[in-house]
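We were asked to recover a plausible sequence for a given structure. The inputs and outputs are reproduced exactly as logged, with field labels preserved.

PROBLEM: sequence recovery
POSITIONS: 602
GIVEN STRUCTURE:
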């Protein structure tokens, strides 16, 4: 009878545990604690642009809210409020988002002190509070957060001494009281370090006695001899096997799969090979100059996209690769494809991303759902806005800034809600490390490459702006810039054709026929003008991404357009009589023969 009671007690405890685990964020009345915390944040801030408008206290799930990102288990993992002119003190209630990994409040007007409740965010990886008006000391509680990869408190008005924060990258420049002439703080940023193993795992304890030392030597000698025999036999078998079948030497198999670089997981090659069914061609999502992308399914049933980088056995080294990968991973934004993890072997470099269920804009432009276009006009406008926000983050808010170099419809992915997610950013730099001897190779896709890039091989943020302009034209016309000239009834390239129709006042002729006239005429004219401003031949005349976003949101387009009509056609250093059409630049460029399509459709 007593044993039966213990069994019933154990079953009851198990059920209670399961119930608590499944409703960890719910109060007894069924209200989500994270919703309450987020609404407290909203109610305590001044939000001039109403970016928090869709945050709703009656919602059970905040994962669909703007500026909020959730993990696979439904907890809020990222809060991204940067660059929205939000003012007020940072609310203490942020500390109640217990699973928060990324908090970006940068480039706003926050004032007051940094709340000590941030020290309770034990999962926090990235904390960006830079470019605000914060005052007072940095709370000591932040030193208790052990997994920090980046803390950026620069360009505020903080004061006092800094606690010992164990972030891999820590920035406090631009705080006069912290970094002035009489300050005692170290204001130089801590640079990211390559992934390493605990020193204790790599060295013997130095305080061993002499007796145990001699025993260790004797044991080591015996063990070494036996190990040498095993290695020789193993190499013999391995060599015979290799002659008959291609195999992969996976240096990662000796690593703990839970070892992380910042928030990035380090996968084993064996793990990713199994997830993709041995890189089965049936799982290919896309091809490009960077390599092949495969759909994968991990052991926990998580769907991922695995990018197997092309010819990476020629790379400079493991540490260099890890440093570049970590810098890419620091760019965290709702409209950027998040890097989840990586894998390195002697001859392989792989990157792991979340799987995007709706593919790319390029792959969905011609799709139909129940006889209607998968991308209607409102979705196309949202894609333009989302892409602009992602590129704005890369150019003006990311440190160091990232130039994409291949902005096009194939690189704009779509999540389950058809929100735009910019992919493949930062990879052009990885590729150039591998081919450092190539100084003039054009990285990009013909039809999207800016004229000055074709002429000189020099890229900048303005080359991305040109690519964004062509992307807008792809959204309007429903056609890929690369394929445009192949149509029987069209000559030249898309940009020249659109300019001609615009001059003739025939905008309706350029709109995707699949939309069947279901589009906003005013928004069409605005989008065409923004595209033409972005694709001006002189890069200095093109707007910045922050200006582009404002124009797409209805602010400042008329003034920009009027000013653009007064500028003359530019003259480039590479030629005294510059071509008047984009197609002429393509024909005359000596570099275009080296141009490559970095990323295919997904």
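RECOVERED SEQUENCE:
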């Amino acid at each position: 009878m007593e044993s039966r009671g213990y069994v019933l007690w154990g079953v009851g405890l198990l059920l209670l545990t399961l119930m608590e685990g499944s409703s960890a964020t719910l109060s007894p009345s069924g209200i989500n604690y994270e919703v309450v915390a987020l609404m407290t944040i909203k109610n305590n801030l001044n939000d001039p642009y109403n970016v928090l408008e869709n945050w709703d206290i009656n919602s059970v799930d905040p994962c669909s809210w703007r500026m909020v990102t959730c993990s696979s288990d439904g907890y809020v993992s990222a809060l991204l409020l940067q660059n929205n002119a939000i003012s007020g003190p940072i609310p203490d209630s942020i500390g109640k988002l217990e699973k928060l990994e990324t908090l970006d409040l940068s480039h706003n007007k926050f004032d007051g002190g940094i709340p000590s409740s941030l020290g309770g965010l034990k999962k926090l990886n990235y904390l960006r509070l830079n470019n605000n008006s914060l005052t007072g000391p940095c709370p000591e509680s932040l030193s208790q957060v052990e997994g920090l990869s980046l803390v950026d408190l620069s360009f505020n008005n903080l004061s006092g001494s800094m606690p010992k924060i164990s972030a891999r990258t820590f920035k406090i420049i631009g705080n006069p009281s912290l970094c002035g002439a009489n300050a005692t703080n170290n204001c130089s940023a801590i640079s990211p370090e390559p992934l390493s193993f605990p020193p204790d795992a790599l060295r013997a304890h130095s305080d061993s006695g002499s007796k145990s030392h001699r025993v260790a030597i004797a044991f080591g000698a015996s063990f070494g001899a036996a190990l040498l025999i095993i290695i020789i036999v193993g190499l013999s078998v391995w060599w015979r096997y290799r002659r008959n079948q291609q195999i992969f030497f996976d240096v990662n198999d000796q690593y703990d799969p839970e070892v992380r670089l910042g928030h990035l997981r380090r996968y084993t090659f064996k793990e990713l090979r199994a997830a993709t069914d041995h890189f089965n061609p049936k799982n290919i999502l896309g091809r490009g100059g960077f390599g092949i992308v495969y759909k994968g399914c991990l052991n926990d049933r998580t769907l991922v996209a695995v990018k197997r980088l092309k010819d990476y056995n020629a790379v400079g080294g493991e540490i260099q690769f890890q440093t570049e990968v970590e810098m890419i991973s620091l760019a965290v934004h709702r409209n950027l494809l998040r890097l989840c993890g990586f894998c390195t072997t002697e001859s392989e470099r792989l990157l792991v991303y979340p799987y995007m269920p709706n593919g790319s804009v390029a792959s969905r432009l011609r799709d139909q759902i129940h006889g209607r276009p998968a991308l209607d006009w409102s979705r196309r406008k949202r894609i333009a806005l989302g892409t602009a926000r992602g590129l704005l983050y890369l150019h003006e808010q990311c440190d160091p800034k990232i130039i994409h170099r291949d902005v096009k419809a194939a690189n704009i992915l779509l999540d389950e809600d058809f929100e735009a997610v910019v992919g493949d950013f930062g990879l052009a730099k990885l590729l150039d490390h591998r081919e450092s001897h190539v100084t003039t190779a054009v990285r990009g896709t013909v039809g999207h490459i800016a004229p000055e890039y074709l002429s000189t091989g020099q890229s900048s943020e303005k080359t991305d702006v040109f690519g964004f302009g062509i992307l807008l034209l792809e959204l309007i016309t429903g056609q890929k810039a690369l394929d445009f000239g192949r149509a029987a009834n069209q000559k030249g390239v898309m940009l020249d054709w659109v300019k001609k129709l615009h001059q003739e006042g025939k905008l309706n002729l350029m709109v995707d026929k699949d939309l069947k006239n279901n589009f906003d005429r005013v928004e069409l004219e605005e989008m065409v003008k923004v595209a033409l401003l972005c694709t001006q031949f002189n890069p200095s005349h093109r707007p910045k991404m922050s200006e582009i976003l404002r124009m797409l949101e209805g602010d400042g387009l008329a003034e920009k357009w009027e000013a653009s009509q007064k500028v003359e056609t530019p003259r480039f250093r590479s030629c005294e009589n510059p071509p008047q059409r984009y197609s002429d630049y393509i024909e005359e460029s000596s570099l275009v023969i080296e141009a490559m399509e970095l990323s295919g459709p997904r």
